[in-house]
Amino acid sequence: MTGPVPELEDRAAACADRLCEADRVLLASHIDADGLTSAAIAAQALERADLPFETVFEKQLDETAIAAIAETDYETVLFTDFGSGQLDVIGDYEDADAFTPVIADHHQPADRETEYHLNPLLFGIDGASELSGAGASYVLARALAEASDGTTTGVAADGGTAVESTESHPRADNRDLAALAVVGAVGDMQASGGELHGANANIVEEGVDAGVLETGTDLAIYGKQTRPLPKLLEYATDVHIPGISNDQAGALRFLEDLDLELKRDGEWRRWSGLTGEEKQVVASALVKRAVSRGVPAHKIDGLVGTSYTLAREPVGTELRDASEFSTLLNATARYERADVGLAVCLGNRDGALERARSLLRNHRRNLSAGIDLVTSEGVTNEEHLQWFHAEDRIRETIVGIVAGMALGNDGINRSKPIFAFATKTDDGAESGDEDPAEVKVSARGTHSLVRQGLDLSVVMSEASRVVGGDGGGHDVAAGATVPAGEESTFIERADEIVGEQLS
Ligand code: C5P
Ligand code: C5P
Ligand code: C5P
Ligand code: ZN
User: Fold this and answer.
1) What is the ipTM score, two decimals?
2) Domain covering 378-502: architecture
3) 34 lines ligand 1 (CB under 6 A)
4) Pocket test for ligand 2, best of 182, 401, 444 (most atoms within 8 A of CB)
5) What residues does the DHH-CID domain cover (predicted)?
6) Fewer CB within 10 Å: C terminus or N terminus of the chain?
């Protein structure tokens, strides 16, 4: 049978076979929505294959983190959503027989190879827009089901097809894990023009077949499951609708003027609870309003997109919508509570959802305060980029999200990439302790800049190397750590590189 991403199938099978040879596996993953869903997919696949494992999360897979992994007595380490960019360091440990790495990642690989390396970029698939870490982990999970399945259910004599029908057993073939893969892709902002593309689209299809995902054309606004209607519209700012976006009274008036019963028991209803007809009425009134206020047609198109609904999650919860689910996960892992996010992914074990929701309230406050800070203080413009330094006023783990969300606000032009510095917090120390010797820098661009040649992954790795730092990522979003005090040298070099890329 063919895997969800044919180009990756052989490599995935090799990785799966190697995992099946292990007595036990150390699973190491990244602390964001994509990293958490990667870990949740891998964890379930390992469990179903009867492979004992333990999970660890890292903010950054730096030399210290890799050394600590090598210190454990695990002989097989599965890295998800990172590992490729650190192959130079990992390779040294492999050569010294410290452990065998198996990697399911989508970041730009370092200049070194290893045998069990599953990364879309090695096979001509774009790791920034066509497959996420969770997607790579899903491809591996599907191969693991095949590899471990061969021994339990046998193989048909005509060569290759498993005896069990895959149609009736989405769980046995791990296709049910496609829903988490889609949450990871959406969390890494891989959807563009309103939908997922390429290998991601194949995974969506498998999830729909397995009954864990539903797709539909719907309003492309964040919060369809959980936000009361007036808040949904007031906070929807990706497409600015005059008199509604960022306008509490205006959003209320707009809804009250519609001939619909949008309140129930005195409470505003939510988009997810509306009937198809009610949605139609609200959506066309919104479009009409946008048109009458002169919003250009191509922007209005952005109001509608493909929604990815997790069919088995309860209506009206964050878990039902891929985009809200991913934000909920970021709210845990980026605040040192990856355990909570993982438990949510694994089926809300031990009331994890309630804890995640309280972390989410805190995350929202921080995002909103961060965006206010950047917008009010403004950015410094260089010739080809813009930047700000948040010091310790924005957490380094969310400064990139804030920078991305602020792009396009007053005074923050979408025609240049944005670079954001924040004081680095020390991993080993109490939370809140800072390491004044190092600064985190996050960069975000737009798809349109990428089409013009921008590659922030290259900018980050080259400009940070000049000052003795380290960085990488994707063309549209990347990060680095640089020594404190070197910010201006770094920016100077980054500005030159961006200039060369866009020329
Ligand atoms: O490490 P990882 O690949 O998971 O992180 C990707 C990051 O890039 C996410 O924080 C995501 O929000 C960001 N991103 C973005 N805009 C894009 C693509 C990704 O801000 N178009
Ligand atoms: O936090 P995360 O990176 O997952 O956010 C992804 C996107 O979701 C943001 O760029 C933003 O457009 C939207 N979002 C939002 N309100 C929030 C959190 C996220 O609109 N409170
Ligand atoms: O941390 P931030 O959200 O800005 O990260 C953006 C992207 O850059 C992520 O994909 C992350 O894994 C990557 N990154 C990296 N090396 C760093 C920092 C971030 O590859 N030192
Ligand atoms: Zn990722």
Assistant:
1) 0.83
2) Roll (3.10)
3) yes
4) 401
5) 221-304
6) C
